[in-house]
Design brief:
Elements (H helix, E strand, L loop, with lengths): L4 H22 L9 H11 L22 H7 L5 E4 L4 H9 L3 E6 L2 H16 L3 H8 L14 H9 L5 H18 L6 H17 L19 H6 L14 H12 L3 E5 L7 H11 L4 E7 L1 H7 L3 H9 L8 E7 L9 E7 H4 L8
Parallel strand pairs: 1-2, 1-4, 2-3, 4-5
Antiparallel strand pairs: 5-6
Length: 355
């Protein structure tokens, strides 16, 4: 007896639905966007108590940090989860890797305040010229547009006048954006932290460097302007402000609340583990983790093994990559810190995750 055609079609459609359902349960489910409440809840729930470091790290001092981007693009898949530590160098790596979601984990709450300042500036600025002008509390120069080079933007903004009125107006706009538009319940300490960070960018302008704030930072002549106008080894500009496309990668992620700052020690019991659980539950993978030179201090304090066990909890694959700043790094041109890459899965095999 022949099976009716309608039954065959119905059976086929049911099989397709079951396969789709089974696949859907395993499909990556990172959010396309977070609500303001979800963003703040994640940041707060994943964070550990405020810690200390010897300097403020308002900006990087790693002039060769772009050298690692070409090999990084060859080894790391896009549209994954990016993790990092510290200030603006993360933005350049994010622009290159184009992740779906970002977690910036830093031991200091001051870095969270710095990231919130950046968040407001990205969201309020229509383009790079406006962003850079706002960042340094300068009146935006005329004649700059989407096609302007980053050198042209920094030269113009660096020569633009500043005033206490421009600074006060911008600072108020930053706070209003975070509190009123986003609805974040910022504490007085966070508001003071944001103000202190922004005051340094206003005071020093594009010539701000790692040691400018005076809070423990050793002298470094690498300015913000030099970091943003630097290139990779072949002379290609790759900073997050090198072009509008890079800038818009960051702006889009910030508007969607997908760059989440977290307070935490790399070797601590909560921050990295919370990120690991969140990412794993959504069947996603960590593509890259920028470490700066934090491992140096973890080794000095005898807690690198705890960090290793934390990383071993992250969902990784063969392409998941550490980005480091170390003496003797393979990607750089100076005697100090240069960049290097490491395979995360291979390196944490020696660590047994705690249950």
């Amino acid at each position: 007896m022949r099976t009716p055609r309608c039954f065959i079609v119905a059976t086929f459609m049911l099989a397709v639905q079951l396969v789709a359902y089974a696949g859907g349960r395993q499909a990556e489910s990172l959010p396309a966007q977070l609500s303001d409440q979800e963003f703040w809840a994640l940041s707060s729930a994943f964070s550990e108590p405020d810690g200390t470091f010897r300097s403020d790290n308002l900006l990087s001092n790693e002039i060769y940090f772009q050298y690692v981007i070409p090999p990084l693009n060859e080894s790391v898949q896009t549209a994954r989860v990016y993790m990092g530590v510290g200030p603006e160098q993360n933005f350049t790596y994010i622009a290159a890797l184009k992740p779906k979601m970002v977690f910036i984990v830093d031991i200091r709450r001051g870095n969270l305040d710095l990231q919130l300042m950046y968040k407001a500036l990205f969201e309020m600025s229509k383009d790079r010229a406006e962003f850079v002008s706002r960042l340094f509390a300068r009146k935006q120069p005329a004649g700059l547009g989407p096609e302007s080079t980053i050198l042209e933007i920094f030269n113009a903004v660096g020569n633009a006048p500043t005033s206490s009125e421009v600074y006060a107006e911008n600072l108020k706009a930053i706070k209003d954006h975070l509190i009123q538009k986003r609805g974040f319940p910022l504490s007085e300490d966070d508001l003071d932290g944001i103000e202190w960070v922004y005051s340094n960018f206003h005071r020093y302008g594009p010539n701000i460097h790692y040691g400018s704030s005076g809070r423990g930072g050793f002298g470094s002549g690498v300015t913000y302007s030099e970091l943003m106008t630097a290139t990779d080894e072949k002379g290609v500009p790759r900073s997050y402000l090198a072009n509008e496309e890079n800038f818009n990668v960051l702006k889009s992620l910030e508007l969607k609340n997908l760059i989440v700052p977290v307070v935490g020690n790399f070797a601590g019991p909560k921050a990295i583990r919370s990120v690991a659980k969140y990412v794993k539950e959504r069947n996603a993978t960590v593509g890259a983790f920028y470490l700066s030179n934090v491992e140096q201090y973890l080794l000095m304090d005898g807690i690198w093994d705890d960090f290793c066990r934390n990383v071993a909890m992250l969902p990784l694959d063969a392409s998941s990559t550490f980005i480091r700043s170390v003496r003797g790094g393979r990607f750089g041109g100076g005697p100090g810190l240069n960049s290097d890459l490491g395979n995360m899965s291979s390196e944490v095999k020696v660590c047994t995750p705690e249950k």
